[in-house]
Amino acid sequence: MTTSASPRTSTAVRRQVDPRLLAVAGSLCIALSPILIALSGASPGTATVFRCLLALPVLVPMALLERRRLRPVAGEMPAGRPWLVVVGGLLLGLDMTLWTGAIHAVGAGVSTVLVNVQVVILPLLAFLVLGERVRLSFLLAVPVMLGGVALASGLAGGGGGAADPVTGTVLALLAAFAYAGYLLFLRLGSAPGQRSGPVTLATAAAAVSSFVLGSLWEGVDLTPGWTAIGWLALLALIGQCMGWVLIAGGMAKLPSSTGASILLLQPVGAVLLGMLVLGQFPTVWQLIGCAVVIAAVAFAARTRAEPAPADASSS
């Protein structure tokens, strides 16, 4: 008797939480990621490998609890395609490693703006792979977005305090393509109702691909020091576990236009936090470029009709 009442109560409590608040909280968690990466001082491969490995002890129990929760509802586990999730996870490892390199090169805020170009890349991939319709408004937003990317990269007015704005821009855009691929494969491979399970599997696969890429790039330091491990553990908890699960839980219940708009809090928050915490002040042109990118992505995301799960699993 007590056992049957308890799940109903917890379900009722979950339903009372506004999904927009969950998505906003998740976006703000992810906005902290580039700050924590920069504070760790770790190389791209090192930061990504530890981010994934330190997140798994939290994600695995969440996945097991989700498995137990879904089994009584369906009578058996809903069918998915785990190999597609693994492919997506390998792309996620590439995304996070390249993005970390972009953070070092162009700064936390600008790199986060650029990597969120995935919100526009994803519809193009969905069109090529799934045959989903691409609206005229999407095509109109692309040249505006590319102009904003050029400004944000520091091509006008210098790169500000960025170490290498052009290289950072290239890395961030490559990361955006990998990120969009991750979202697409996660969407194709996840079963209905699954959130933590696919994220856990993708995180394990990301640890593998980030180790390979990091080893070939700047190396992976398996003993980065306790200070770096502390920042990376905080990154794993806030950016990898809390952020992704909150966003997945909130955006699954939101229209895609609302959810995609909320995701744009990530680059805005990262730019502001980069200025406040790290003293990374972009030039006026870079700030204008960031604003243009955000506006173009918001326009494209607001007008396209995508299922929520494609955006729900984002970084």
From TrEMBL:
It comes from the Bacteria. InterPro entries: EamA_dom, EmrE-like. It comes from Actinomycetospora endophytica. Keywords: Membrane, Transmembrane, Transmembrane helix. Belongs to the EamA transporter family. The lineage of its organism: Bacteria, Bacillati, Actinomycetota, Actinomycetes, Pseudonocardiales. This is DMT family transporter. The chain crosses the membrane at residues 21-42, 48-65, 85-107, 113-131, 138-160, 166-186, 198-217, 229-247, 259-278, 284-301. SUPFAM superfamilies: Multidrug resistance efflux transporter EmrE (SSF103481). Pfam families: EamA. Residues 21-153, 168-300 form the EamA domain.
